[in-house]
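A brief tutorial aside. Many learners find it easier to grasp structure tokens once they have seen a single protein encoded end to end. The record that follows does exactly this for Dipeptide epimerase. Read the sequence first, then the structure, and try to relate runs of similar tokens to stretches of the chain.
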Amino acid sequence: MARVISVESERFPIAGTFTISRGSKTEAEVIACTISQAEHSGRGECVPYRRYGETMDGVRDAIEAMREQIEGDISRAALLDAMPAGAARNAIDCALWDLEAKITGKPVATSICAAPPRAIETAYTLSLGEPEAMAAQARANAARPLLKVKIGGDNDMARIRAVREAAPASRIILDANEGWTDDNVIANLAFAAEHGIALIEQPLPAGRDGILRHIAHPVPICADESVHEAEGLASLVGLYDAVNIKLDKSGGLTAALVLRDRARELGFGVMVGCMVGTSLAMAPAVLLAQDADFVDLDGPLLLARDRVPGLVYQGSLVSPPDTALWG
């Protein structure tokens, strides 16, 4: 029986303002793709990201351009060849995974997880701000075991110190979002090490990070904007110690699984992260992240309103998705 696809643009308010080195936003803009066949429907969600030249209209148009092939029964493997990596392919790929699970009655977890999926610990993200404001955020979340701290400005040492003093027991990931420079990266890395930072994400701009091959890494450094798919991953050996896998970058769960396995082969640590989206976007990533070294899937915790049903969060633990949500 033929498939039918529908695409919907949606907005979910953020609880307050979410700020990184590139700017601020007050809502999550997402696109949901639903692929139906007979009485079954599969869903996927993506978050268009301007850093990669994506817009809501552009991603929606890219999904619509695939309508004939999707409704013509394209496979996930064929989708990898038919579309480039990115948000549009992610929404379609995850919808196809979900549809297959609904049709067969076989949960996605049984196909991709080595053991029954369990609740996993996720980071909780603190927005970029002045040191005092960031200390207040950290103090309010000091009971969380893992915090992800947005930095990337001229006053980062003061921010690091303020957050560490406010949350002395938490492990901390710093995410510079390409905001450091060749002139300050060595000093900032050393300062981070002195303050017990566990990981630093993408300190330098993608493509301008060659200095990382020639300086000490007193704190492990994780590629984010510098890594999308498995192809070319070998070129990051020596530059980075870990890679952040996001479904919206890799273009879906299918490609993300390949990227994860290739990263392990090359000796990289693995982080599974997200854009700011709803539980529908996080659900497949929770399964991908079952054996990750770091998990950053707190998107729904940053929203004022999530989908219903959504993922279940208990403090910093996020449980695997119920099949009513995805998979």
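Self-check: Residues 87-104 form the longest helix (18 residues). If you spotted this yourself, you are ready for the next section.
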